[in-house]
Design goal:
Blueprint: H1 2-7, E1 11-12, E2 15-19, H2 28-39, E3 42-43, E4 57-61, E5 67-70, H3 77-86, E6 89-94, E7 98-99, H4 100-103, E8 115-117, H5 122-133, E9 137-141, H6 151-161, E10 163-173, H7 186-194, E11 206-211, E12 216-221, E13 232-235, H8 237-241, E14 248-250, E15 255-260, E16 266-272, H9 277-285, E17 291-299, E18 304-308, H10 344-369
Parallel strand pairs: 1-3, 2-4, 2-6, 6-9, 9-18
Antiparallel strand pairs: 4-5, 7-8, 10-11, 10-15, 11-12, 13-14, 13-16, 16-17, 17-18
Length: about 375
């Protein structure tokens, strides 16, 4: 299969990739995209393959807590105009950024700290606007417009693409017991206790919702509020038939809740939180929906746009398997879906077919119009 892959012809598709959250190589936050690019033999020029540790704009980690910033912030309007002409597509895989505690190893990494670099910038949104004007493919995902992005820039993105962030983000945690789960963010616990008489009464797992605008925390606990512990993504017929997505799949990592303008966009798949009556009451109290968009898209002659409402591109995979043609036939060997926190099944069953189809559709449309 390696020999077959090696002799397949390459296809030039220049994608401007933005990732501001690379704390170590090879950059897990954009590695899933590079896997698809490599598997499909998409090239950055006529001869060269994409390299995960080089071919992106954003934060570049060095040794001894040093780093380089190579984001779009370096470019003036003329340079951004040129990039929008040269690039076939744009993909913001993660704009959240890097914070002092995780980079300089100061204090508890689970505590909030000052930002080193991150958030969508005015150069980022200007570039996306240029790409839209040129009828090109734009893919964005959580976290592109949430905190720490400036509200003015966020508002510009929302108006440009017909999508509005609710302010809510969320994530599944296998256990809320602080004596067991050391990965629980300290800020999550403290913010909840601040508005609940210094109490943190949770021992089981469940879903945490955080309002990034006022630090409000809402906990849905397994058994007490949830009929099914994990959030699930449910695909529409379009998602199943065209994009090759499963009818439903669990998702255990970070997501956000957005509202869309149905006159501009449509939803390809939904997140669903399977709540009982107590859980629905809790959600109603804070105006949190139990169903909300997972994949939003606009595909027309004017431009192509996708927003993935979760960390779709952040999956623990290896690039090495992308060198084998037909490797997806053996995807069942790559993961154990029974484990709640595993995310490899999400890559193999949803992300890989979805992004492969998006890129192949777009490449074919470029060729048809040449």
């Amino acid at each position: 299969m390696l020999v077959v892959w090696f002799f397949l012809p390459g296809r030039k598709l220049l994608i401007a990739i933005v990732d501001k959250t690379v704390v170590e190589y090879p950059g897990q936050e954009h590695l899933s995209l590079h896997w698809v690019l490599n598997q499909e033999k998409f090239l950055k020029n006529n001869t060269e393959r994409y390299e995960p540790d080089k071919d992106y704009f954003g934060f570049f980690p060095l040794e001894d807590e040093k780093y380089k910033l190579k984001g779009l912030e370096r470019f003036d309007s003329t340079q951004l105009q040129k990039l929008s002409v040269d690039a076939d597509a744009a993909y913001i895989t993660d704009a959240y950024g890097v914070f002092r505690n995780e980079w300089f190893k100061q204090g508890n990494i689970q505590d909030r700290s000052g930002i080193v670099y991150g958030g969508m910038s005015k150069q980022d949104i200007y570039f996306l606007e240029l790409m839209k004007q040129k009828n090109k493919l734009i893919i964005t995902e959580f976290n592109s417009i949430g905190s720490p992005t400036d509200p003015v820039i966020r508002n510009k993105f929302e108006q440009t693409f017909g999508i509005k962030w609710s302010g809510w983000i969320g994530r599944y945690f296998e256990s809320f017991d602080t004596t067991i789960n050391k990965e629980l963010p300290t800020w999550l616990i403290n913010n909840y206790k601040r508005s609940h008489n210094d109490q943190w009464p949770f021992k089981k797992g469940g879903v945490a919702f955080i309002n990034a605008e006022n630090d409000l925390v809402v906990i849905l606990e397994s058994g007490k509020h949830l009929k099914t512990d994990l959030p699930y993504i449910y695909a529409s017929q379009e998602g199943i038939e065209h994009y090759g997505m499963p009818e439903k799949i669990k998702y255990s990592f970070w997501f956000d809740i957005v509202n869309i303008d149905p006159k501009v966009n449509h939803v390809v798949s939904d997140f669903r939180i399977d709540v009982n009556e107590a859980g629905q009451t809790e959600l109603n109290q804070y105006k949190i929906p139990a169903t909300f968009p997972a994949i939003t898209t606009h595909i027309n002659k004017d431009y192509r746009f996708f927003y993935f409402s979760a960390d779709f591109c952040d999956n623990p995979i290896s690039l090495s398997s992308s060198y084998f043609k037909g490797v997806s036939l053996f995807k069942w060997m790559m993961y154990t879906e029974r484990e709640p926190l595993e995310r490899k099944s999400f890559f193999w069953r949803l992300y890989r077919p979805l992004v492969t189809t998006i890129l192949n559709d777009y490449y074919d449309s470029i060729k048809e119009n040449q």
